[in-house]
């Protein structure tokens, strides 16, 4: 452990050598200037050390330094601060005794997770290889099965009368009793005027999302933050709306005991691929690739673009715009979960969540790959009450065009549009460029340009890591994600060799998730910068009005160098913005 | 139209199907042309002009294309070249998509790919009398949530192929539901075929050919049992349909 970063640092106010050596860095506009001040955050408000600009002190209360494993008070307000079993409610202190679920004992189950991680790991791999497109996993299980109870992460959708609607594992109908138990817990609390947010029970966290008449529940022992799990439930709800619209609620007005499962039949693959994107890898149809990809869009609230030359993307946008002008609401060209181009009429904007849910739906529904399709689809962030009509056509294995319209009659028009678009894309080599970019991959930390100025060279003496190839980027940079707030877009680097293993990637994903949650925590945030060091990574997060940067370094990296490297990443992203971002798609960018 | 169950009726409001559910309640039940009565003949396999899926070809000419999904001129006829809008209906999993893919691409993929909304494919058939028939096929989704959308796809269709799975009585019932719906709401002159698919699974048969045949006869439909898996009777199905299309007298 680097003593500089420890909260028990006997002298938290000694000047940071890097800032000392180069005060100019502090002046740099929009540069990351995190210094020692942050180190004291967990305990007390830092005192000025004379090196940081005045406004930095003002923000000091927003800086958190968290050493994983050290008992910091004022740590993340997430689940880690909640020890044993108990319920946390929005307005109630009555958080002790819960009705013990008789049918399963799941919520009361404690310390049973000894072997559970093994099951989950094996289970994920198996799903990847076999069950992927077939959807429902282990339909034979129910809440009486040992294997079912040992699953690391369950998701349920049920009605407020306790009827099961969806379960990640097991057959919904067999889980009627369990579902009724969940309903009983929720309404027990609701009836007393409270709202149940989550329950901690040993290693398990039970998170609730109430969207009357629909309840969503996640039971997890993955130690993800509450906010992350809640967002996952929100996305699952959104995915359900994408398939059915919110008008499905009216089924329950007429008949509160209405069985909704038939309306979701055949969509298991859609939900399981979404759930996989939450965890750490994203659906890669048709054949699961050895290369595992995760989807940060599930927590970053942003979408990502396929890197392309400016002129190539322009060519794609021009023809999509042409089509949009002829009465198409949105024209969207994507390659897997990356956007090639997106155009909307009347400055209507497509929410990143809708894009995530739509692309998940299309990629996980095999039938779209067979031929061109015309299907009703609801974009919950655009309008949860109505169906739009989506014309979907795969131009090659990974690249698909989606044309959205409000008119149920426009199939032949959209088909013509697609033929025109496809002709132009082929002629102007956009499609071949797209395929090439897919092969080339995204930004690599190894390619981060070295700064050439004299000023910085004075600092780069220890920075030999860039020449030590095979261990990531300069200064031990292993990975980064940059989110442009302005554009609703993010760019993330490819995984460098130190995080090539899927277990390492999973750890990184979880670490980012926690970092994100702590930075956006309503209770203590919003924060501007955060520096963390644990046994796996050094993590740096920096949020400004324009962007959010998340970076992971070698756990032994030097802090000052890490900060400097972050500045270079930002500069690099800005230099490349025409290739990695799409301009003109967001209404704010006109 | 009578919408199957009210949850779906409620979904309809979301679908804003005001114009797609332009039902004609006052219209008398169409008289099914007697010449279309039960005809179950075996014919030689037809020669297929274009085994490739025309839809995927960029050169695909859309001359005289239909004006919309619901265009009433579902059959463009010039005695030797016929364009036909055909819709497949039936419960989920009976093998509609497999039938279409066998006919259009000559393939059978046993892995289940539940259709979303509806897929559009086309295929051309050359008949013995040198007539060329281009089928524009709507392969609809059999899942319940899409049931209320069916009018969008069958309205204006010249041919409706109602499919059931011979190993499931339930899917046969569902087929009868679709036949009734088509009789009420489809174009009056629509050619209807009843198809018992998965004929290769005869050891698990739950619907007798006799029952299906009688039902088809009663409702003026053409009946055939097929197997998308073995390709048995797939071409015959479309060949027979082509023969039954009304021709313009020129
Ligand atoms: N044995 C056998 N199986 C078949 C045959 N045709 C289809 N199947 C199987 O039935 C399953 C469902 O077939 P689909 O063509 O996807 O069914 P569908 O009617 O299109 O279903 P939806 O798209 O949900 O409406 C597939 O997994 C096929 O393997 C057949 O002729 N014989
Ligand atoms: Mg199908």
Descriptive notes:
The complex is a heterodimer of chains A (590) and B (250). Chain A has 590 residues and is α+β, with helices and mostly antiparallel strands. Among the domains of chain A are: 308-440, Beta-Lactamase (2-Layer Sandwich); 442-580, 2-Layer Sandwich (Beta-Lactamase). Chain A is built from 19 helices and 18 strands. Chain A has helices at residues 17-21, 24-27, 54-58, 116-131, 146-150, 176-191, 226-244, 249-254, 268-279, 297-300, 310-324, 352-364, 367-370, 411-427, 430-440, 454-457, 502-519, 559-575, 577-580, and strands at residues 64-67, 86-89, 153-159, 164-167, 196-201, 204-211, 214-220, 303-305, 330-335, 338-344, 372-377, 388-394, 399-405, 477-484, 489-492, 529-533, 538-543, 547-553. Chain A has a twelve-stranded mixed β-sheet, sandwiched between helices. Chain A has a six-stranded antiparallel β-sheet with strand order 2-5-6-7-3-4, with helices on both faces. In chain A, helix 7 runs antiparallel to helix 9 (268-279), helix 7 packs across helix 12 and helix 11 (310-324) runs antiparallel to helix 14 (411-427). Chain B starts with 5 loop residues before the first helix and ends in a 6-residue tail after the last helix. In chain B, strands 1, 2, 3, 4, 5, 6, 7 and 8 form an eight-stranded mixed β-sheet that branches. Chain B folds into two domains: 7-70, no CATH class; 75-244, Rossmann fold. In chain B, helix 5 (209-218) links the parallel strand 7 and strand 8. Helix content of chain B is 25%, strand content 22%. Chain B is globular. Chain B is an alpha/beta fold and 250 residues long. The longest helix of chain B is centred in the C-terminal third of the chain and has 17 residues, at 169-185. The chains are: A alpha+beta (590), B alpha/beta (250). At the A-B interface, helix 8, helix 13, strand 11 and helix 14 of A face helix 1 and strand 4 of B. Guanosine-5'-triphosphate (GTP) binds at residues 90, 92-98, 110, 112-115, 141-143, 197-198, 200-201, 227-229 of chain B.
């Amino acid at each position: 452990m680097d003593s500089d970063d420890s909260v028990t640092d006997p002298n938290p106010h000694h000047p940071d050598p890097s800032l000392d050596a180069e005060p100019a860095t502090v002046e740099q506009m929009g540069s990351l200037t995190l210094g020692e001040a942050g180190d004291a955050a967990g305990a007390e408000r830092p005192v000025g050390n004379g090196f940081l600009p005045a406004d930095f002190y003002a923000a000091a209360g927003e800086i958190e330094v968290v050493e994983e494993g050290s008992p910091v008070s004022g740590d993340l307000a997430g689940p880690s601060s909640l020890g044993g079993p108990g319920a946390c409610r929005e307005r109630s202190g009555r958080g002790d005794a819960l009705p013990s679920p008789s049918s399963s004992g799941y919520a009361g189950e404690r310390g049973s997770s000894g072997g559970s991680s093994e099951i989950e790991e094996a289970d994920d791999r198996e799903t990847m290889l076999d069950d992927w497109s077939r959807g429902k996993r282990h339909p034979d299980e129910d809440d009486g099965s040992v294997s079912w109870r040992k699953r690391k992460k369950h998701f349920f959708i049920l009605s407020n009368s306790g009827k099961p609607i969806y379960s990640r594992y097991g057959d919904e109908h067999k889980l009627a009793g369990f579902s009724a138990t969940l309903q009983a817990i929720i309404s027990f609390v609701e009836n007393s005027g409270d709202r149940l947010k989550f329950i901690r029970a040993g290693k398990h966290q039970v998170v609730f999302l109430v969207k009357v008449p629909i309840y969503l529940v996640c039971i997890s022992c993955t130690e993800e933050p509450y906010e992350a799990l809640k967002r996952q439930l929100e996305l699952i709800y959104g995915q359900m709306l994408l398939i059915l619209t919110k008008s499905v609620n009216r089924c329950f007005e007429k008949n509160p005991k209405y069985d909704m499962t038939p309306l979701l039949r055949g969509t298991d693959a859609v939900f399981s691929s979404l759930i996989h994107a939450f965890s750490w890898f994203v659906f890669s149809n048709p054949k699961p690739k050895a290369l595992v990809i995760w989807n940060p869009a599930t927590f970053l609230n942003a979408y990502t673009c396929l890197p392309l030359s400016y002129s190539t993307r322009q060519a794609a946008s021009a023809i999509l715009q042409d089509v949009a002008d002829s009465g198409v609401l949105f024209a969207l060209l994507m390659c897997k979960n990356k956007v090639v181009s997106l155009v909307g009429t009347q400055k209507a904007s497509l929410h990143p969540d809708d894009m995530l849910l739509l692309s998940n739906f299309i990629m996980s529904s095999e039938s779209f790959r067979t031929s061109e399709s015309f299907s009703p689809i609801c974009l919950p962030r655009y309008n949860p009450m109505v169906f739009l009509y989506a014309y979907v056509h795969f131009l090659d294995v990974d690249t698909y065009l989606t044309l959205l319209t409000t008119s149920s009659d426009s199939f032949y028009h959209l088909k013509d549009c697609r033929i025109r678009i496809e002709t132009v894309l082929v002629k102007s080599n956009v499609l071949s460029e797209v395929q090439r970019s897919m092969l080339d991959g995204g930004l690599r930390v190894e390619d981060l340009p070295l700064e050439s100025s004299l000023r910085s060279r004075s600092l780069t003496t220890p920075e030999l890591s860039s020449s030590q190839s095979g261990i990531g980027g300069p200064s031990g940079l292993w990975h980064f994600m940059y989110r442009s707030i302005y554009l609703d877009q993010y760019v993330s680097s490819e995984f460098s060799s130190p995080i090539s293993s899927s277990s390492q990637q999973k750890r990184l994903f979880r670490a980012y998730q926690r970092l994100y949650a702590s930075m956006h925590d309503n209770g203590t945030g919003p924060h501007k910068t955060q520096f963390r060091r644990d046994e796996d990574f050094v993590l740096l997060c920096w949020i400004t009005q324009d962007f959010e940067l998340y970076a992971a370094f070698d756990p032994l990296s030097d802090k000052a160098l890490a900060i400097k490297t972050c500045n270079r990443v930002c500069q690099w992203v800005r230099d490349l913005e025409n290739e990695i971002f799409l301009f003109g798609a967001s209404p704010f960018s006109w | 139209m009578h919408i199957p169950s009210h949850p779906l009726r409620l979904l309809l409001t979301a679908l804003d199907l005001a114009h797609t559910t332009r039902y004609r309640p006052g219209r008398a039940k169409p008289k099914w042309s007697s010449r279309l009565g039960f005809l179950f003949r075996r014919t030689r396999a037809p020669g297929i002009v274009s085994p490739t899926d025309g839809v995927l070809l960029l050169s695909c000419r859309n001359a005289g294309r239909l004006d919309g999904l619901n265009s009433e001129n579902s059959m463009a006829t010039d005695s030797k070249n016929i364009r036909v809008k055909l819709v497949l209906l039936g419960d989920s999993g009976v093998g509609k998509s497999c039938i279409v893919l066998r006919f259009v691409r000559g393939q059978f993929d046993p892995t289940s790919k539940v259709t979303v909304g509806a897929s559009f494919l086309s295929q051309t058939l050359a008949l013995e009398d040198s007539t060329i028939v281009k089928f524009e096929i709507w392969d609809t989704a059999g899942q319940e949530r899409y049931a209320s959308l069916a009018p969008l796809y069958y309205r204006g269709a010249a041919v409706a192929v109602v499919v059931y799975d011979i190993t499931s009585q339930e899917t046969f019932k569902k087929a009868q539901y679709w036949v009734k719906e088509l009789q009420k709401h489809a174009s009056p002159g629509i050619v209807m075929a009843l198809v018992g698919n998965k004929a290769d699974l005869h050891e698990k048969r739950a619907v007798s050919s006799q029952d299906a045949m009688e039902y088809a006869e009663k409702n003026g439909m053409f009946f055939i049992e097929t197997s998308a898996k073995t390709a048995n009777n797939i071409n015959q199905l479309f060949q027979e349909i082509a023969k039954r299309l009304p021709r313009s007298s020129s």
